[in-house]
Amino acid sequence: MAPLKQIQKQVSLANMDRGIKTRSQQILMKKDVLPKRKADESPLKRITVKRSAMGEINGKENDRAELVGKATGKQAIVTSREIRTRSLSRTRKPLSSVNLVKPPIPPAAKAQVKDVQIAETSKPKIAVKAVKTESTTTAAVKAAVVVKTTATLGILPRPTKTQVKIIKKQPDLPKVPAKPRKSDSDKSESSLYVSALEELNLDDVVKDKSGKSTVKKKQRRPPPPGIEDFDKENINEPNSVAVYAMDIFDYLKSRESHFKIKDYMCRQPDLNASMRALVVNWMVEVQENFELNHETLYLGVKLVDLYLSKVRITKNKLQLIACASLFVAAKYDERFPPVIDDMLYVCDGLYTSEDLTGMEVELLKAVDFQLGIPLSYRFLRRYARCNKVQLRTLTLARYILETSLLDYSTITYSDSKLASAALHLALIMEGHKEWTSTLEYYSGYKAQEFKDIMKLLNDVLHKKQTKEQAIKTKYSHKVFFEVAKIPLVKSSDL
């Protein structure tokens, strides 16, 4: 794919409206048109014998060279499994066939061993008598036995008479009953866990009347009366983490102030709002063609704005920053992120792998490696689920929220308020004008707090997008209920 369209005369940013096709997609469509890659044309690929990580570690280089040489002809290529089997059959022998012969002991070593044995037998033994009197304690007797044993073996120096008297004169110590220890086989995971918590003296560990230690469960904060308890209905669903859901989103709302973006176009003389909208439209196309998560797209756009708010750049680096932001976001959120070759391919070879990896480092340093950014898309899904909004209405809210990514004027607003405004606007467009008490409780906002944002989003929908049509085309499909074709409402009706 070509780079960005031509925005000014100095920089060529053209042909972005054709859509993006990955290399694998184009190979399936036109196998004979695209040239072969260098790896496919390499002659070494046919004769190279791949080795596994653990195989043929002690093999000989001559044997491997011979096998590779045989593979260059018309014979079949020898696999690594066959190489490993042949090398093991030649080098290893069964243990029963190996004769373990002790090496002979030199005469000088034999003489030294005899001298040591004679010295040990001739060493006088020290007899320490433990007189059993009323002042003699168990600890003193044990200490005397230890001293006698160690002195006999030659580990410690011989004790003097005064040391023996000191041991005998030790006061009586109170006997502590030995606590019976369970064997490792008797210990279960729960007993080990509770015993570890007892040593840490955590407040969450309590003891019942029988003395058994238990861990207190996290107390879930219930909603006020009259509001449907959505988390209680999903308390047994592990993926919902209903016990911590309210705390999680309260924490995300508190983190929004750490990632607040201010107006930065005044500090970027080479950029403008239309260029930013164009590059965001390109990121939407990449996300759609690579089938990435929506969270990846939102995080990528957020990283672009955070970087541009801190670093001044030129026009020719704008697409590189967008590519690196989307690549980092995919690594953070995707299970199987795209490889670096795919990211370079969608840039039409405009950048090298060194350029992309270098920009990744600069981007992560600029955001201080903070990637847990609160995203409006996550808030939208939470609010819609708590109010049990229909999928069509949720998709319409997603279309409104995704369209707002193109507009530069929305970057200064809170993500949680943007999600609330998009959902409320979608409800109004579907004929539900009420912002319910359930939505008010779970979002934490009243309708009047984001009314100006809702009007701004409605104005963004009314704008005629001449170049950036990726989002409207995407949500005009039947998969997305064709929500982009739903009639808009007037700002006076809001």
UniProtKB/TrEMBL annotation:
GO terms for biological process: cell division. Signal peptide: none annotated. InterPro entries: Cyclin, Cyclin-like_dom, Cyclin-like_sf, Cyclin_C-dom, Cyclin_N. Pfam families: Cyclin_C (PF02984), Cyclin_N (PF00134). Residues 374-489 form the Cyclin C-terminal domain. Residues 165-190, 209-233 are annotated as: Disordered. Keywords: Cell cycle, Cell division, Cyclin. GO terms for molecular function: cyclin-dependent protein serine/threonine kinase regulator activity. Residues 281-365, 378-462 form the Cyclin-like domain. Belongs to the cyclin family. Cyclin AB subfamily. This is Putative g2/mitotic-specific cyclin a. The lineage of its organism: Eukaryota, Metazoa, Ecdysozoa, Arthropoda, Hexapoda.
